[in-house]
Amino acid sequence: MKRIGVLALQGAVREHVQMLEALGCEAVLVKHRQDLMKIDGLILPGGESTTMRKLLDRFELLEPIQNLAQQGLPMFGTCAGLILLANNLVGDKPHLAVMNVTVARNSYGRQVDSFEIKVDIPKIGNAIPAVFIRAPHIEAVGQDVEVLAQHEGRIILAQDGHLLGCSFHPELTADTRILEYFVVSIV
Ligand code: GLN
């Protein structure tokens, strides 16, 4: 059974845990350094990236997660999690700075402007529901980064080797296909 950590400092943690369990994985809540031992992959959930960054510093998790990413541990960042992974942030300093993408925050307006679309992702499946909540988008990708999905000309899902990042919240729907792609094809 694959053991997948979910960074559990803030944000949509429980939904990821439930989806991982539905996929037959063991979900491990990551709050302290030692929780990072013996995991096969790590999910950085959506929430609020500025708050998460403060908590990463307080719990001394920034460097250990950065090291694991550099050593090749598969990671999936959704929404705020994508912001944490990005090498470059428009108008801001990066956080983990491990994924070769440039991300712009709050690209789709405010919380009240949240919306859901169905997106076709050739590598994963068609009509996959995607929930956007004060979502970022990927403005540019580096060499060797694969663009997996776009919406209205903006990149919303990309893969940089063992690192996957999306603008939206796949865990807030009942559709497990994107998470399954992560745990089966990347982890
Ligand atoms: N706008 C949030 C941020 O900058 C991300 C929103 C989300 O994760 N739903 O962190």
UniProtKB/TrEMBL annotation:
EC number annotated for this UniProt entry: 4.3.3.6, 3.5.1.2
Pfam family membership, one: SNO
Sorted UniProt keywords: Glutamine amidotransferase, Hydrolase, Lyase, Pyridoxal phosphate, Transferase
Pathway assigned in UniProt: Cofactor biosynthesis; pyridoxal 5'-phosphate biosynthesis
Entry GO terms, CC: cytosol; glutaminase complex
GO biological process: L-glutamine catabolic process; pyridoxal phosphate biosynthetic process; pyridoxine metabolic process
Single GO MF descriptor: transferase activity
Catalytic residues (UniProt): 79 (nucleophile), 169 (charge relay system), 171 (charge relay system)
InterPro entries attached to this UniProt entry: Class_I_gatase-like, PdxT/SNO, PdxT/SNO_CS
Residue positions binding L-glutamine: 47-49, 105, 133-134
Catalytic activity line of the entry: aldehydo-D-ribose 5-phosphate + D-glyceraldehyde 3-phosphate + L-glutamine = pyridoxal 5'-phosphate + L-glutamate + phosphate + 3 H2O + H(+); L-glutamine + H2O = L-glutamate + NH4(+)
Quaternary structure note: In the presence of PdxS, forms a dodecamer of heterodimers. Only shows activity in the heterodimer.
HAMAP family the record matches: PdxT (MF_01615)
Family under the similarity heading: Belongs to the glutaminase PdxT/SNO family.
Function of the protein: Catalyzes the hydrolysis of glutamine to glutamate and ammonia as part of the biosynthesis of pyridoxal 5'-phosphate. The resulting ammonia molecule is channeled to the active site of PdxS.
Protein name as annotated: Pyridoxal 5'-phosphate synthase subunit PdxT
